[in-house]
Design a protein that fits this description.
There is one protein chain. Helices cover about 20% and strands about 30% of the residues. The chain is α+β, with helices and mostly antiparallel strands. Strand 3 and strand 4 form a beta hairpin. Helix 1 crosses helix 2. The longest helix has 12 residues. The N and C termini lie far apart (about 45 Å).
């Protein structure tokens, strides 16, 4: 388990600015959206004086104004061992080597600062017992790859070290195929394309990633292939449903790449995809970026045959696509 705010660690200070679309948002909800900490952890940070608005302490129910600058002093987590928890899992496939799960929106993959439990790892430990590989350590047992908290979809988890290493080699060699479905803001005029742009940690905001072409920074190669599935309009804005195929697996890769070409994902508060009139009208359906890992294929570590798994969009995202894309084929 990990404590939210340990003593004797160097604190990290994050700075965010509220835009027009975030005006009226409660402070604890805003900090949660921007940091991916739980709402309760953000409330404790605010009550402990770790959060300021325009340089002054504020209550957790303070309603932000456009242009407000919010600073969050975020201690690093003091991590020990994750604990098993009886949390339901959507299991797509399971055998003695691995388990493929369909992660819901809002679930964090492994424990971290502000998310000491309630994660996919806690659920896996309960379901699998000791049958998870140790390659990822006590906080990430069996975890071969990750997807963001508010991204839904397929993940493969290794049950023993041999399977983990075999799958990791495929991941490094770009041989695991991952197909995502995303709703991008704006009209992507070409029917398909590729974003080939290195991604690294944002130079001033440690919670964000960015396209970085400066050779002096430690950015890594990142390649995203996209294809248009449907185009639509609503509430005075254009939207495009796309399929994305990853060659690489950088943190926030699709979100960063699409934002870098002027088409952030609908509902993404970190990379500029929030604040549309459509989102304001359908807020109950959009709880984060509209991004779903729908197809996963790889060579099985025992059979050495290619296996492929599919997951339909979650109900809310499917409803969004119905509203935006009238001619979308089922």
């Amino acid at each position: 388990m990990c404590r939210d705010y340990p003593e004797n660690v160097q604190n990290e200070v994050l700075s965010f600015s509220a835009d027009e679309g975030q005006a009226g948002t409660r402070l604890d909800a805003f900090v949660s959206d921007m940091t991916e900490l739980t709402r309760s952890a953000c409330a404790r940070l605010i009550e402990g004086g770790f959060v300021t608005v325009c340089g002054k302490p504020a209550a957790k129910n303070y309603r932000l104004r456009a242009g407000d600058t919010v600073e969050v002093t975020l201690p690093e987590a003091e991590v020990s061992e994750a604990i098993p928890q009886n949390i339901p899992l959507d299991i797509v496939y399971e055998d003695d080597d691995l388990i493929v799960v369909n992660k819901p929106v809002g679930m964090v993959v492994h424990p971290a600062a502000g998310n000491p439990d309630g994660t996919l790892v806690n659920a896996l430990l309960y379901h699998c017992g000791s049958s998870l590989s140790g390659v990822g350590g006590v906080i990430r047992p069996g975890i071969v790859h990750r997807i963001d908290k508010d991204t839904s979809g397929l993940l493969v988890v290794a049950k023993h070290d041999e399977a983990h290493l075999f799958l990791s080699e495929q991941l490094k060699g770009h041989r695991i195929q991952r197909i995502y479905y995303a709703v991008a803001i704006g009209n992507l005029r070409e029917d398909s394309g590729t974003v080939d742009a290195p991604i690294g940690r944002h130079p001033t905001d440690r919670k964000r990633m960015a396209v970085i072409r400066d050779a002096s920074h430690s950015a890594k190669e990142a390649v995203t292939h996209w294809r248009v599935l449907a185009r639509g309009e609503a509430n005075g804005s254009s939207f495009t449903l796309i399929e994305c195929r990853l060659e690489t697996g950088r943190t926030h890769q699709i979100r960063v790449h699409l934002a870098s070409i002027g088409h952030p994902l609908l509902g993404d508060p970190v990379y500029g995809g929030n604040g549309t009139r459509f989102e304001a009208t359908h807020k109950a359906l959009i709880t984060g970026q509209c991004l779903h890992a729908g197809t996963l294929s790889f060579v099985h570590p025992s059979s050495r045959e290619t296996v492929e798994f599919h997951s339909p969009m979650p109900k809310d995202m499917a409803r969004v696509t119905e509203l935006l894309f009238e001619n979308l084929q089922k």
